[in-house]
Amino acid sequence: MVVTDDIYTKDGTVDINKKPANKKKTGNWKACSFILGNECCERLAYYGMGTNLVNYLQEQLNQGNVTASNNVTNWSGTCYITPLIGAFVADAYLGRYWTIAIFSIIYFFGMTLLTLSSSIPGLKPSCTGDVCHPTQEQIAVFFVALYMIALGTGGIKPCVSSFGADQFDETDEVERKRKSSFFNWFYFSINIGALVASSVLVWIQMNVGWDWGFGIPAVAMAIAVVFFFAGSRTYRLQKPGGSPLTRIAQVIVASFKKLNVKVPADKSLLYEVADNESNIQGSRKLEHTDKLKFFDKAAVETENDHDKESLNPWRLCTVTQVEELKSVIRLLPVWASGIIFATVYSQMNTMFVLQGNTMDQHMGPNFKIPSASLSLFDTLSVIFWAPVYDKIIVPCARKFTGKERGFTTLQRMGIGLVISIFAMITAGILEVVRLQIVRKNNYYDLKSIPMSIFWQVPEYFLVGCAEVFTFVGQIEFFYDQAPDAMRSLSSALSLTTVALGNYLSTLLVTAVTKITTQNGKLGWIPDNLNRGHLDYFFWLLAILSLLNFIVYLWIAKWYTYKKVAGYPE
Q1: Are 367 and 509 in the same domain?
Q2: What is the pLDDT of residues 138-160, one digit of tens each?
Q3: What pLDDT, on a 0 to 100 scale, did the predictor assign at position 122?
Q4: Same domain, 481 and 395
Q5: Are residues 207 and 283 in the same domain?
Q6: What b/e sequence results for 227-251 when a residue is b if at least 16 CB atoms lie within 10 Å of its CB, and e otherwise?
Q7: Residue where a domain stops, chosen among 242, 261, 278
Q8: Does some domain include residue 483?
Q9: Beta carbons of 85 and 154 less than 8 angstroms apart
């Protein structure tokens, strides 16, 4: 008799035909190659359209600095809020595979409409020289397309990194180590797409035309969809576990119904199913943790917990269900600490671009590099640091810390927060020097001053370095620390930091503009930055980042890592 224990995965995954996933035929890097290819093309589409968006709004829709900047951050923020919708659908009903598939098609239709709005007469704004005259209908079509893309990306973002990590069996020690590397290469593939977008596509948009500049990303999105479906037979799928919000609500309601019930000192008396696996579809059992003890009341069994012969889930919950809620609550302070970092990150598509617009963009006598293309150096920084972190920093750190991953994910994220402070300081120093040149030479009314745009490279490079530590660490942390049946929702939660970071940027720009333009003053961020003080805005972000890091240190010290019953931590 052949022993088949090691043929199939032990983490509950199934193949596309809903049969137990065969280890040799599914998952691992074979499946991930399709997922990484899909992500690379999808990110090329997203950044190819979003990187230079502020310039499109200014040139084609005739918007000023503040309006264009706020429209970009509002849209970017929405792109990171909609993942809450996609995540809920994935975890509760469709699973990650079908959620990605359906929302990818919505995304493609949005990209197609965006391309039509910039190329078809009637939908495309008419221009006289450098001044365009968009109608309200044309603006409406453009923003409908833009927010269709935001909806489409909402089903992809929270699922694709978790779906890739699902291809590695956590119960297998060898595959578990590969999973940690996956997150680095996942972010690496994102930035390969971004590299093409911020260099080739931005140049096409500024020199060939917006029709081609948006058309190519639409084709890239079509390729992304094909890539994803091509790997279907190799994927491992986690079954959806039902509504996580219902389970969370049940624990909260049951805890308050038992306000006067005492939690026993012996935690083994708390209610849990007798089976090896939990009663939540697609989730392993979680061990009890001592913090947030109030919610343990939901797992204390009393006489009133039964409706006839069955248990009432609104009065009695399992330890695993209680620990699900505790895990989410523990994630929230770490989540909140990422908002300021995301605000710093959002400056690359707004204030960094506007700063670059005022500098000499020539590269040789004839070639002019678009200011938005400088984000290329953020991308190159990520492409450099991602493999360096995986192949050099982790092995070296492992020797000193003895930890499998070199650093804990919280330590990794903290390092990135520190680097982001220096990124804002660097941007502020550059602006101080730029304004000194303006004052010294009376360049106030020059559109671009004789100072090379390549002086912006250090600020972009530092943001890229910070991303590798904080954003990649965040993706891994929110996947690892989430309950098994809530991983898409947890990934979406981590993405909302970017949304709130963009909205905070909008709020800060609006507040700063309102306060600094009182009494007829031009303010910090006027349309002519040569007469403003953009450096003050960068100093403000540096101070907020420093205060955020100090709070983060306390949060990290307080945090308790999730414990899965019967598995190594």
Answers
A1: yes
A2: 889 989 999 999 999 999 988 88
A3: 84
A4: yes
A5: no
A6: bbeebeebbbbbebbbebeebbebb
A7: 242
A8: yes
A9: yes
**Are residues 514 and 459 part of one domain?**
yes
Question: Do 350 and 315 belong together in one domain?
Answer: no
In a domain, 568, yes or no: no
Q: Are residues 383 and 248 in the same domain?
A: no
Query: For 376-396, what is each residue's pLDDT tens digit?
Result: 898 889 889 888 888 888 888
The C-alpha atoms of residue 17 and residue 102 are separated, in whole angstroms, by 18
343-370 confidence digits (pLDDT tens): 999 888 788 988 988 888 888 777 888 8
**Distance of CA 290 to CAs 158, 267, 274, 335, 486, Å?**
30, 9, 21, 21, 21
Res. 422 pLDDT band, cuts 50 70 90: very high
- The answer as to whether 292 is a domain residue is yes
Q: Count of domains in the chain?
A: 3
Helix, strand, or coil (residue 311): strand
Q: Report the percentage of the chain scoring pLDDT > 90.
A: 22
Residue where the block lists tokens 């940027």: 505
Domain-embedded: residue 163: yes
Backbone φ and ψ of 549, nearest 5°: -65, -40
| Span 46-68, average pLDDT | 83
Report how far residue 195's alpha carbon sits from residue 375's, in angstroms, rounded to the nearest whole number.
8
Give the CATH number of the domain where residue 34 resides: 1.20.1250.20
Q: What is the 3-state secondary structure (H, E, C) of 162-202?
A: HHHHCCCCCCCHHHHHHHHHHHHHHHHHHHHHHHHHHHHHH
**Do 383 and 186 contact (CB within 8 A), yes or no?**
no
Structure tokens at 457: 């490279």
| Amino acid at the residue 504 | L
Chain-wide mean pLDDT for the chain? Answer: 85
Residue corresponding to tokens 């052949």: 2
Instruction: Indicate whether 54 and 146 sit together in one domain.
Output: yes
Of 337, 564, 357, 378, nearest in space to 468 by CA: 378
| pLDDT tier at 3, thresholds 50, 70, 90 | very low
Domain that holds residue 36: 9-242
- CB burial of 483-497 (b: ≥16 within 10 Å; e: otherwise) equals bbbbbbbbbbbbbbb
Residue ending a domain, choose from 194, 210, 242: 242
Whole-angstrom Cα distance, residue 58 to residue 68? Answer: 6
* Same domain as 322, residue 332: no
Beta carbons within 8 Å of 318's beta carbon, 6+ residues apart? 271, 272, 273, 278, 279, 299
Contact predicate 462/306, CB 8 Å: no
- pLDDT at 521 > cutoff 90: no
Q: Which pLDDT belongs to residue 307? A: 66
More confident of the two residues 22 and 5: 22
